[in-house]
Design goal:
Layout: E1 5-6, E2 9-10, H1 20-23, H2 28-49
Antiparallel strand pairs: 1-2
Length: 103
């Protein structure tokens, strides 16, 4: 390899530039995760800081029609819980038995 020279004498070969992303432990993945984290924080902060104040005035009449409902009074009464079952149990499988006899 040839060394470059100038008026001050011989110089060592030039080092390749070190990538900024590779100096951080974790390399590019760390920067990507950091960028995503910053975007999420900005997104959440924008929702908190830039929201419109919508004062809810309970005396203001709504523009839509009101819903009507029917009301009926009722009293609770005891209910007897009984379950009566009738039926026959049958197997769900059918077995065919074959046999041969010598003769």
């Amino acid at each position: 390899m040839l060394e470059s020279t100038d008026a001050h004498g011989p110089q060592a070969p030039a080092k390749p530039k070190e990538d900024v992303l590779n100096r951080v432990p974790g390399g590019k993945k760390t920067w990507i995760l950091f960028g995503i984290l910053v975007l999420v924080v900005v997104w959440i902060a924008s929702g908190v800081l830039l929201r419109e104040d919508d004062p809810a005035d309970p005396t203001a009449e709504p523009d839509e029609r009101r819903t009507t409902v029917a009301v009926r009074e009722s009293q609770a009464r005891p209910v007897e819980r009984v379950l009566i079952l009738h039926g026959d149990l049958q197997p769900e499988q059918l077995v065919i038995v074959r046999a041969e006899t010598g003769g």
